[in-house]
Amino acid sequence: MKKQYAVSLGILLLVWGLVGFFLPDSGVVTEAVAPSLWSNLLYIVAGIAWLASSSSEEMSKCAARVIGVVFALLAVIGLFTDEILGVMQATLTNEIIMGVLALVSLCAGCCCKDSCGAASKDSSSNKDKQA
Where does the sequence pass through the membrane (predicted)? Predict the structure, then answer.
């Protein structure tokens, strides 16, 4: 996964979370997305996590997996309840957004064969064996 991908998704989520604070109390977008303090904070934290992890390939992949699992769990929970964990309203739009973010993040995080951090350990042990 490239650094640009992590930076792009981080900026997108950060902006999405910040814009949620400034949406009007009524309107088509507000009714569809139902932004709340907690959903906005979720997107901001996820965006910051993406941006913070963009400095390293391994960190980006680990962050992608964690963020993907979190969004997947929230999307699944939202399918069975009207409120996600009692703090976020579960709307069809929110479920689609969280589902897409989960799929994109998990695909990005699982494009490598090794688990988080294992690639550097294996590559360093291979260098030792070759020397």
Answer: 5-23, 35-53, 62-80
pTM of the model: 0.74
The mean per-residue pLDDT over the stretch 81-96 comes to 82
Do the Cβ atoms of 66 and 25 come closer than 8 Å?
no
Are 84 and 72 within 8 A, CB to CB?
Answer: no
Report the pLDDT value the prediction gives residue 112, as an integer from 0 to 100. 54
| Sequence-ordered list of residues with C-beta below 8 angstroms from that of 66, at least 6 positions apart, any chain | 49, 109
Among the residue ranges 31-35, 77-81, 106-110, the one predicted with the least confidence is 31-35
Range of the domain at 56: 3-130
Contact 42, 50 (CB under 8 A): no
Whether 6 and 58 have beta carbons less than 8 Å apart is answered as no
Number of domains composing the chain? 1
The single-letter DSSP state of residue 24 is -
